[in-house]
Structure to design on (157 residues):
């Protein structure tokens, strides 16, 4: 069977839109493993913070490590939101394309909850409602930025 140029273009568009999203979701899942638990990341972040703030107390360094980890949650889900917006706004399916914000939001919320559920089974991790909220905040912040940019681009000048 001969493949048409339109078919190849559609396949390339699908791959370029959805593969980065799927790979990022896989990376988030990997980051939810024991390898990225607070005790493991403190092996790298702790010495760096001690070097950066040599006079800081252990409590201060622990708090800064906590903030860095929460910012990591926010950032990883902001990227997820942007990749979801990019994929769904460019979808070949009109229903998905027209509701890209809703579909992306559902993905962000679902994956944030699934991520924390997964962590409840990892011995060195714990499920945290706060982490889910930070994840969702990151995802929705990115989606709102994408929506604003989309409206700005499509608005007649």
């Amino acid at each position: 069977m001969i493949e048409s140029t339109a078919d190849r273009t559609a396949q390339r568009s699908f791959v370029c839109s959805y593969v980065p999203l799927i790979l990022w979701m896989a990376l988030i899942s990997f980051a939810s493993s024991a390898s990225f638990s607070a005790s493991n990341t403190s092996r790298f972040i702790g010495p760096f913070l001690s070097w950066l703030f040599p006079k800081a107390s252990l409590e201060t360094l622990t708090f800064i490590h906590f903030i860095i980890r929460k910012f990591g949650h926010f950032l990883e889900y902001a990227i997820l939101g942007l990749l979801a917006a990019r994929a769904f706004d460019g979808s070949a399916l009109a229903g998905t394309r027209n509701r890209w914000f809703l579909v992306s939001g559902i993905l962000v919320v679902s994956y944030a909850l699934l991520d924390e559920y997964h962590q409840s089974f990892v011995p060195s991790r714990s499920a945290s409602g706060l982490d889910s909220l930070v994840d969702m905040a990151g995802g929705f912040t990115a989606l709102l930025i994408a929506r604003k940019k989309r409206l700005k681009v499509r608005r007649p000048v």
User: Anything to note?
Assistant: The chain has six helices and no strands. The chain has one domain: 5-154. Residues 35 and 41 are 8 Å apart (CA to CA).
